[in-house]
Amino acid sequence: MKELKRLGEADYKEAVALSQFAFQYRLSEEEQEKKIEEFRKQTVFGHKIEGKLAAKLHIFPFTCYINGKTFDVGGICSVATWPEYRRQGSIRALMQQALQHMREVGQTVSYLHPFSVAFYRKFGWELAFTNRYYTIPINHLNRDWAGNGFIRRIEADIPLLHAIYTDYAKIYNGMLGRDDNWWERRVLKDPSQIAVAYNEAGEPGGYIIYDVKDQIMTVKEMVSNSSNEWKLLYQFIANHDSMAEKVTITVPENDPLPFLLDEPRFEQKNVPYCMARIVDALAFLKKYPYQMKEATKSESIIFRVEDEFLPENEGIYELKAENGIMNVCKLAEMQEDRGIRCSIQSLTAMLLGYKRPLSLYELGLLSGDIAEIEQFEKLIPGKQTYLIDFF
């Protein structure tokens, strides 16, 4: 007998055992209890066969910022199947269950870190975040950074760091909202050095979390809310040249650092990092913060969305600006054969800001009248996607 269910206390030890096997780690009894405590904050679905857990997935309840507006997110993680039950449709069934659950609780968008991009594209997820990874000889950073202000090393101060991070997160699309639990259990879990950048008025506007070991400075997280604090932090990194030969750091895909250096030839890798999916197309389109100053009152924009895995999203959507508000509705039918045609994957990539409509049109992933596509392009703010966190 097969059963798809939400897992509870009685199932958590089975779920921990599957996670340990699938992701190849071992937990002590104390660590297992901490893991189960995390499960209680998540939604965990399992597929049972003959009463035994065959497969599972977890959903973290997050929020994210898209063009400065807060959206509820379902973060899918810890997807695993015992080998004897693989390729029997368990994960497909769990993904469908997860999507229905996220729609019910108002999580209009979902994230996941993929083991295989192609695998999750089958279920409607698409790449939405690419991170850039630097390995820089530290002497490349020796220059006059001309930052105004000062740096202070501090002990962990969650309210201070959180305030800086939240302002920074709104600069980009897709960054997670954090709570104290996330700071304690994820960001500040391991002992590290922390330094904060202050401007000349003594106002904090950036921070760096880092370690120095074996002549390598490892920057775990670097946040700055203006170019001034950004320069102060790089000056601070450069000042470690007597202790470190190189520095490793993760930055947004559009980071400008190489352009400012006298020697920009160092190791730089752009790596696809996280996928996203619109879970409820109508609700997402209604809430989305469009650039209304670019909206044309006289014409509507028609979307024909394809979503084979979640048919509730398929259909014709009309976007029409009226009195400074974008009205969005789903049409039962339309006689005219007009509109922008796209998959749920392309719609996600566009609205999060990972790809622009005209780029997808050139790639053949978007079709329709070019004038309508150009108008839609103007409605989407040009913000860079970025995601620091892993789950």
Automatic annotation (TrEMBL):
<dbReference type="InterPro" id="IPR025559">
    <property type="entry name" value="Eis_dom"/>
</dbReference>
<dbReference type="InterPro" id="IPR000182">
    <property type="entry name" value="GNAT_dom"/>
</dbReference>
<keyword id="KW-0808">Transferase</keyword>
<dbReference type="InterPro" id="IPR036527">
    <property type="entry name" value="SCP2_sterol-bd_dom_sf"/>
</dbReference>
<protein>
    <submittedName>
        <fullName>GCN5-like N-acetyltransferase</fullName>
    </submittedName>
</protein>
<dbReference type="Pfam" id="PF13530">
    <property type="entry name" value="SCP2_2"/>
</dbReference>
<feature type="domain" description="N-acetyltransferase">
    <location>
        <begin position="2"/>
        <end position="143"/>
    </location>
</feature>
<dbReference type="GO" id="GO:0030649">
    <property type="term" value="P:aminoglycoside antibiotic catabolic process"/>
</dbReference>
<dbReference type="InterPro" id="IPR041380">
    <property type="entry name" value="Acetyltransf_17"/>
</dbReference>
<dbReference type="InterPro" id="IPR016181">
    <property type="entry name" value="Acyl_CoA_acyltransferase"/>
</dbReference>
<dbReference type="Pfam" id="PF17668">
    <property type="entry name" value="Acetyltransf_17"/>
</dbReference>
<dbReference type="GO" id="GO:0034069">
    <property type="term" value="F:aminoglycoside N-acetyltransferase activity"/>
</dbReference>
<dbReference type="Pfam" id="PF13527">
    <property type="entry name" value="Acetyltransf_9"/>
</dbReference>
<dbReference type="InterPro" id="IPR051554">
    <property type="entry name" value="Acetyltransferase_Eis"/>
</dbReference>
